[in-house]
Amino acid sequence: MGEKKRKEQSKAEFIFGKKNYKFMLIGLAFIVIGFILMSGGGSDDPNVFDPSIFSWRRIRLAPTLVLIGFGIQVYAILLNPNKEKKSKK
Q1: Largest interatomic CA distance in the chain
Q2: Domain spans, the chain
Q3: In principle, which of 1, 18, 30, 55 could form an S-S bond with 69, CB 3.0–4.6 Å?
Q4: What is the four-CA torsion angle of 81, 74, 29, 20, rounded to 10 degrees?
Q5: Rounded Cα distance, 76 and 21, in Å
Q6: Mean pLDDT over all residues of the chain?
Q7: 31-71: per-residue pLDDT in tens?
Q8: Are the C-beta atoms of residues 37 and 61 closer than 8 Å to each other?
C-alpha cells in the first residue's frame, strides 16, 4: 500500500514548471538565432580573402545573442516554479 502511494505522488510532480519551460524555449531561440547570424561569410576559393567574415553582425551581435541565450537558460533552471504557490498559502 505504501509503495503504491509513493508512485502516485512521484508521477504528479515535475521538476520544472510551465514558466521554466517557457524561459528555456526563449533562451534556446536566442542561442539558435545567434548561431544562424554567425554562419556564412566564407569564400568558395581559399586563395581569395573575404572581409565579410569580420562584419559587425558576426563579431558582436551573434556572440552577444548566444551569451544572452545561455544566461536565460541559467535563469530558467534556477527559477523556482513553486514560489507563487508558497506565497498564496
Answers
A1: 75
A2: 22-88
A3: 30
A4: -10
A5: 7
A6: 85
A7: 999 999 999 877 778 888 888 888 999 999 999 999 999 99
A8: yes
